[in-house]
Structures are given as structure tokens and as C-alpha cells.
Design brief:
carboxypeptidase, protease, carboxypeptidase activity, three-stranded antiparallel β-sheet, Rossmann fold, 27 helices, 4 domains, binds zinc ion
């Protein structure tokens, strides 16, 4: 039903429920009040639950789910009119990004997979996690949490805290009925364990998980009015008035929400004079692998300086001042993409702590009690990915969330986990590594275009699968190159190139072949010698020109040829050998590790090579290439820089690169077989959507060519029964057979299919899970290109490869 179809004069129950699902409670309440004006004030209507088929666990039922995962906590979805997003999930999200070259602001559009990921509306919605039984005599601590991006098909798991539809083929999007908080981040399990461990006296933790969309967009959610509205929407919590706040964010939620809300945080409440009940504890900020950690640290640094001044002024009141102070915990994946900003934040913290009187520091006082550095702490979480920082990868009842909640009331509990002050950033580690190798090497800069891309992830010193294979000597401009270029003009080189084309190349081949069978006549010998000399001259000049280009591009990107090509490594991806730059090697390892460690993909726990064979990988990788222009492009290929790899070359051609012949055949095949013509030269969406569309088209093409077999004629006849031919299409089976044979002849060993598998075997044999793991590691897949689809191709044009890619595109080739 579309929103335009609602009629306020026909507000029967199914209509209202449907409207609530799609239009949101506030809008519906408004309509109801307009329709029945005699019944003010507007009633709050609970959002309609999902059909049990879409929500088998019953998470969206009004009562929620009690004792989730045996945690002793209840999970309930609440609607809070007036707060949060409205209008549902969008089809795409836009953001603005500054062009580093021109300084111009560019609008970037990214399609959303949310509507595929869940059937649940995000409108005015939050998830509440609370004890099954709330003890009225214990204080309450409310965690207000904001999730990261949850919309990109290739990278993001779960659309916020909505129930997964299971419709997405990307396993990261969750199986039917799963939710991010229970199945991935373990909120219920960790909160249940902390509440139990606090016994009968400590605060009881309740979590408010705000539901957002897109790029961590949450609508209007002012800290205290929002929490108040959520608590009021839960009868068991409606009476809770004096609570402390734990303001928490993961990934993009850190920058869009937490960074702006830290100013709201409060000191602990003064304990009542009679001492009968515990005071409200101080508020806490927690950042889980989050954007904006440096900004939040500026707030923390201000708190440290205030506290230092107060301790200086009132040494006797020291412990009370410390106990009343707000706290901070920052957690990051030890070798993930957020390492560098967290280490920057750690250094800011160290400088601020230097102003604290010695008696209140660990170094200055061995006495018991909480020191100032116990209040503000950064922790590196080992062995986790960006999406598992909150849960860690161990028992569900343990994790960084549980650690943070424990530290909120026992700030000394995690002293041993504190990040050392001398921890180093990724660029520093790379620089150190490079210095140890060769003095000319420059450090690689770490770039993050987008939050939540676990992309820049494992810069971790890797296992032994990759070995350095210095390729600098193949790329460095030699003295001979410069001498050669200096001895020619660009016009002379252009003339040489014009004089040596495909005709001359074939002539060399013919004469060489002839020379093996018979003696060449003197004229032929002279011709061959001259042609070979010209070829050598053109090749030498071209090599020198491209080496010049490589040097200029790397220089523009801030690297040296020796440094960049000194970081070329040899190794393998799923058993397929590859020679690539270390930054791409990192991503390939990241994707491989994800596949090998995924019990659904690799149930028997095979090694990478064995799993590769199971997933249909075969050894025809094309990786680091001698300097030459990109296939179908004018600038040097990313392959030249070791930033691209072609996988399963034979079965995955560059479709549409050699004109429209192959795309036209695919359009005809999909029209006949599926009823909808697919144009592979158009944009097909994100990696997931592109894969699905291309796979369907691939299957249609193999079916189409299978009609060439006489035995399959009945299948073609069946396909044509009752079918209306589109313009230009044959109208009967005989006509189709003729076209199919022509199409087959047009593709086999020609154009896009030259040197590839025969067209009846299709154009896509990569396993979907391999493609999704690679794009999930931040690589760009040629199947997502705007026009022709380079299906074999994966490259690193963002992250560490971003600078080189930008310089490559901006560069003008030497002539
Ligand atoms: Zn390629």
C-alpha cells in the first residue's frame, strides 16, 4: 500500500496498523485526532508488530521478549512520538565531501540496502533493554547508545536495531529474525551479567538503543527529554526519575550524536545525608571504535583540567571530587581503522593528566583509591573487528560494554587494560618498518573516507603468507630512460608510434614464422630487422614515458618509487598467488580471514587454499603490471601500482569493454529468459545489488545458449508459449534459434570473450561470498562500475590507495 492510498474516512484497524508501519505513530495519531475530533488528547498508539513470519522471536510484539538469551533482561521496542527519524528508510543517502584537489564540495550519493535488510520501520523507534524485574530500591543507570552506519549493502551489518529480514544474501546483514544488539553486540547478555554482578546495591543498567538510519542519522533526540520520553513509554520505567547517563556511540554515532551531547553530562549527585540509599553515580561517555573520539577527548581534557585545578585548591576534598567527576572510556579495535585517532586522543589525555597534582596520579601515589587517570581511559581491544568491538569475540556475557559498565562504578577495575602512553599510530609503525628497510621510504598515510569501513583495518603485522618482493627496479626511471627521452622530441615519438601499429606487429609475426620454415629473401630480412628495430625503439620510449608517469603520480601522492615498490609483496588470496602492494595485501588478508573464520562459509575449518578450491577459485590472477594504461581507460591502471587484482580471469570477462556486442546479447538473453531485459552498461547498485543482477543475467545467458541444444528445444517452446515479442525480437522458435546462434558466434573467442571461457558458460563464476568479503574489506569491485563491468577486477582505490588513485586520475600522461 502506498501512503497516497490512505483514506482518513476509512480508518478500520488493518488500515491503522498498516499506516503505523509505514507512516509512523505521530502521523497516524494526528490523523486519528483529526478524524475523531471529539476525542482529545491524542492517544499514543503502539506501533504494529511485524508479522511472526518476519519476526519469529516476537521482538516487535508490544510486550517485547523477556529473559532474552537467558540474560535476565527484557528487550522491548518502543515508539516515542516527536523523537527520532520519520519517513522510513531512504533509498539512498547523500553526504558532502571536499574534493582534495579543488577544495570544492562534492555531493556523494550512496544507495541504501536497509529496505532489503529489514521490514521494520525506524520511525520514532528505540529499543529498550532492561532487567526482567526492576528493583525499585536501586538506582538506575541509563545507557543512551547511538549505532553506526547500517545501510551500505557491502559493508554494514544490520539496519540499526531493526529485526533482520534475512532477505539479503549478505550474511553480515543477519539471518531472519536476528537483531544487532542480541546476536552481534550482546547488549542483553552483557547488561544481564553486569546487573547480576552488582548484587543488591549497585545501579541497575537499562539501555536505550536509538534507532537511526543511513549515515547515523537519528532525527531529534535531545539527551534528557529523549531519555525521559523513552522511559515514559515503558510502564515499568515510567516512575524512574533520578538516573545517571552513560552516553555511548559506535562508529558514525560517535560523531553525529555523542560528540555534541557530552556538554549535557553531569557530576554525581550528593549522597543523601541519612545515607539510606546510594547516590546517583556520575555520568559516563563511552566511545566504541567511534568517529569523533578526538572531539570527545577535548571535552574530557577540559574535565581533567577542571579537576586538576579543584584538587590543587582543595586537597582535603580530593576523593569526593574524583568520585563526583564524569568518566570516559574509549575502546578501539587494536589493529582497526580507528587506531590512529584513538592514539591521538590518548596523547591529548596524557598531556592533560600531567597537570594533575601528583598525589592523585598513579605515578605520584601508591595508595589505594581512584586516581584521576582511572576516570578517563582508552583501551585497545585485541582480536576484534570494527563490528565486534562492543561484544569482543568471546563469551556473550563479556565484552567491552560490560567492561565499560563495570568501570563506570569501579573505575580501577580496568587499570591493567589501559592503552600505554607510548602506543604508536599506524603511520608511525609503517614509517618505522620502512626506515628499518630502506632510508628512502616514506611513511604511508592512513586515510579514511568513510566511518565504519573496517577498511583501513589490519595494518597489523601479518602472518607469514605475504613476503616483501621489492619491485622498485622494474619501475624506477633509469639513466638510459632519461637519456633516451632527452634525445627525442614528443613529435618524433608520436611519429614512431604511428609508424608501428598492429599491421607492423602482424608483419613481424608473419616474417618470424616464415623464417622458421624457409630462408627469408634479403628484402624480407631487411624489412624484419627494420621493423624489429622500430618496435624496440617504440617500446623503450613507452617504457621510459610510463616510468616517468609512475614517478610523477607517486610524487604527487606523496610517495617515492623506491618506497612504494619496495612495499610490493608476494603472497596468496584463497590459495591464488598474487603480487600486490602491502596495502592491498592487507585487505586481501582481511577478506580471506573473514571467509576462513566464517563457520557458515567454512564449516569444516579448512585452510585458505582448500577453502579457495571449494569456493571455485582458480589460479589465473593478474596483479602487479608493468606500467601501461588501464584497460579501456586513458590513465595508468591501478594494477601498475599493485593496487588491483583480477581474480578467476577466464570465467569473468570485462563485459562491455569492447563495445555493445556482448551487452546487447545479454539484454536479449535476459529479455527472453527472465522477461526483463538487463542492460549491463547501466549502474546496478552497490556490490550486493550488482552481484545479484549480474548473476541473474549470467544465468539467463547460459540458459539462452542452452537452447542451441536440440534436446532443449521443448524448453524454448515453453518459454515462447503466450509470450509477446518485444520490438525487434523474433516471434517464433525458429527465429530465436537463428538469433541465438548468431549471438553465440558473435561472442565466442571475440571481443569481451576473447581469451575467456566460451559464452555458453556465462560471464560470472566468482562466488558471491568471495565478492562480498572483498568489497566488505573495502575493495571496489569492477562489477559495480557505472558502465562496462570488469567482473574479474578488485582494487583498492580508497584508504591507503586513495592518494595514488586521485593523483593517477589527475595526471596527464607524458608524451
Ligand atoms: Zn583489473
Amino acid at each position: 500500500m502506498s501512503r497516497g492510498a490512505f483514506r482518513t474516512d476509512r480508518l478500520d484497524l488493518p488500515t491503522v496498523l498498516e499506516m503505523q508501519r509505514t507512516a509512523g505513530n505521530l502521523a497516524v495519531t494526528g490523523l486519528l485526532t483529526r478524524a475523531r475530533r471529539r476525542r482529545p488528547p491524542p492517544r499514543r498508539v503502539q506501533r504494529a508488530p511485524l508479522d511472526p513470519k518476519q519476526d519469529p522471536k516476537g521482538y516487535t510484539q508490544p510486550q517485547g521478549v523477556k529473559n532474552v538469551a537467558s540474560s535476565g533482561t527484557t528487550r522491548r521496542v518502543v515508539t516515542v512520538p516527536g523523537f527520532g527519524v520519520t519517513g522510513g528508510f531512504k533509498a539512498e543517502y547523500t553526504h558532502r565531501r571536499k574534493d582534495p584537489k579543488t577544495g570544492e564540495m562534492l555531493e556523494v550519493r550512496t544507495p541504501s540496502a536497509e529496505r532489503r535488510m529489514t521490514e521494520q520501520s525506524p520511525d520514532n523507534t528505540a529499543v529498550v533493554v532492561m532487567p526482567d524485574v526492576l528493583d525499585k530500591n536501586r538506582p538506575v543507570q541509563v545507557v543512551l547508545h547511538f549505532h553506526g552506519f547500517g545501510f551500505r549493502g557491502g559493508t554494514d551489518p544490520h539496519a540499526g536495531y531493526a529485526v533482520a529480514s534475512g532477505r539479503s544474501k549478505n550474511a553480515a546483514h543477519g539471518a531472519l529474525g536476528t537483531v544487532r544488539d542480541v546476536d552481534q553486540e550482546h547488549w542483553s547478555q552483557q547488561i544481564g551479567a553486569v546487573n547480576a554482578a552488582r548484587g543488591a546495591t549497585g545501579p541497575q543498567t537499562v539501555a536505550v538503543l536509538a534507532q537511526g538510519r543511513g549515515r547515523s542519522e537519528f532525527g531529534k533526540v535531545p539527551t534528557f527529554p529523549y531519555v525521559r520520553a523513552v522511559l515514559d513509554a515503558v510502564p515499568e520505567l515510567a516512575g524512574v526519575s533520578d538516573y545517571s547517563i552513560v552516553l555511548s556511540g559506535h562508529s558514525g554515532g560517535g560523531a553525529t550524536q555523542v560528540a555534541g551531547k557530552v556538554a549535557d553530562l553531569r557530576d554525581a549527585a550528593t549522597p543523601p545525608a541519612d545515607g539510606t540509599r546510594p547516590a546517583r553515580p556520575a555520568d559516563v561517555v563511552v566511545m566504541f571504535d567511534a568517529e569523533g573520539v578526538v572531539s570527545v577527548m577535548s571535552w574530557a581534557v577540559g574535565k581533567v583540567r577542571e579537576l586538576a585545578a579543584a584538587l590543587e585548591a582543595d586537597p582535603a576534598g580530593g576523593q569526593a571530587l574524583i568520585d563526583a567527576s564524569p568518566r570516559f572510556r574509549g575502546y578501539f579495535a587494536e589493529w582497526g581503522g580507528y587506531r590512529t585517532p584513538y592514539i591521538t586522543a590518548n596523547r591529548m589525555l596524557k598531556r592533560a593528566l600531567a597537570t594533575v597534582p601528583a598525589a592523585w596520579t598513579l605515578a605520584g601515589s601508591s595508595g589505594p583509591g581512584t586516581k584521576v587517570e582511572d576516570l578517563f581511559r582508552i583501551v585497545a581491544v585485541p582480536g576484534v573487528r570494527h563490528e565486534t568491538v562492543i561484544s569482543k569475540e568471546g563469551p556473550a556475557t563479556e565484552g567491552a560494554l560490560a567492561d565499560a559498565l563495570t568501570a563506570s562504578t569501579s573505575p580501577t577495575s580496568d587499570r591493567a587494560q589501559a592503552l600505554p602512553w607510548d602506543a604508536r599510530t599506524v603511520p608511525e609503525l609503517k614509517a618505522a618498518k620502512a626506515r628499518a628497510k630502506a632510508p628512502a621510504v616514506q611513511p604511508l598515510a592512513v586515510q579514511r573516507d568513510d566511518p565504519a569501513v573496517p577498511a583501513a583495518a589490519p595494518a597489523k603485522p601479518r602472518a607469514t603468507t605475504w613476503k616483501t618482493s621489492d619491485a622498485a627496479s622494474d619501475y624506477a626511471l633509469t639513466t638510459a630512460d632519461t637519456t633516451l627521452l632527452g634525445s627525442q622530441t614528443a613529435a618524433e615519438r608520436a611519429a614512431d608510434r604511428a609508424a608501428f601499429g598492429t599491421a607492423q606487429l602482424s608483419r613481424i609475426r608473419a616474417l618470424t614464422k616464415a623464417a622458421k620454415k624457409r630462408a627469408l629473401i634479403p628484402e624480407e630480412t631487411t624489412e624484419l630487422t627494420d621493423l624489429q628495430a622500430l618496435r624496440t625503439k617504440v617500446e623503450n620510449a613507452n617504457r621510459a614515458l610510463r616510468r616517468t608517469d609512475v614517478e610523477e603520480i607517486l610524487d604527487d601522492a606523496g610517495f617515492t618509487v623506491a618506497g612504494w615498490y619496495g612495499d610490493i609483496q608476494k603472497g596468496s588470496f584463497l590459495g591464488v598467488p598474487a603480487k600486490v602492494h602491502t596495502s592491498l595485501a592487507d585487505r586481501l588478508t582481511q577478506a580471506e580471514t573473514a571467509l576462513v573464520g566464517d563457520a557458515a562459509v567454512n564449516p569444516s575449518g579448512d585452510d585458505a587454499k582448500t577453502l579457495g578450491a571449494t569456493l571455485g577459485m582458480y589460479g589465473t590472477a593478474s596483479d602487479l603490471r608493468a606500467p601501461k594504461n588501464a584497460v579501456g581507460g586513458s590513465s595508468l591502471s591501478l594494477h601498475t601500482f599493485g593496487l588491483a587484482v583480477d581474480l578467476n580471469y577466464k570465467g569473468n570477462p570485462f563485459l562491455g569493454n569492447q563495445g555493445k556486442t556482448a551487452p546487447d546479447v545479454v539484454a536479449r538473453a535476459t529479455s527472453l529468459v527472465t522477461g526483463t531485459a538487463v542492460d549491463v552498461l547501466t549502474q546496478l547498485g552497490d556490490a550486493q545489488a550488482s552481484f545479484t543482477a549480474l548473476k541473474d543475467a549470467n544465468d539467463a545467458l547460459t540458459t539462452y545458449f542452452s537452447y542451441r541444444e536440440p534436446a532443449n528445444r521443448p524448453l524454448l517452446d515453453a518459454k515462447l508459449t503466450g509470450r509477446t515479442a518485444a520490438a525487434g525480437e523474433p516471434t517464433d522458435a525458429a527465429g530465436w534459434i537463428k538469433v541465438i546462434e548468431q549471438d553465440h558466434a558473435a561472442l565466442k573467442d571475440k571481443g569481451d570473450f576473447k581469451k575467456h571461457k566460451p559464452p555458453e558458460e556465462g560471464f560470472l563464476d566468482l562466488d558471491e561470498r568471495v565478492v562480498m568479503a572483498l568489497t566488505g574489506a573495502g575493495l571496489t569491485w569492477g562489477g559495480t562500475y557505472r558502465t562496462a563491468k570488469d567482473i574479474m577486477h578488485f582494487d583498492l582505490r580508497e584508504g591507503d590507495g586513495g592518494k595514488v588513485n586521485k593523483a593517477r586520475i589527475a595526471h596527464t600522461d607524458s608524451r
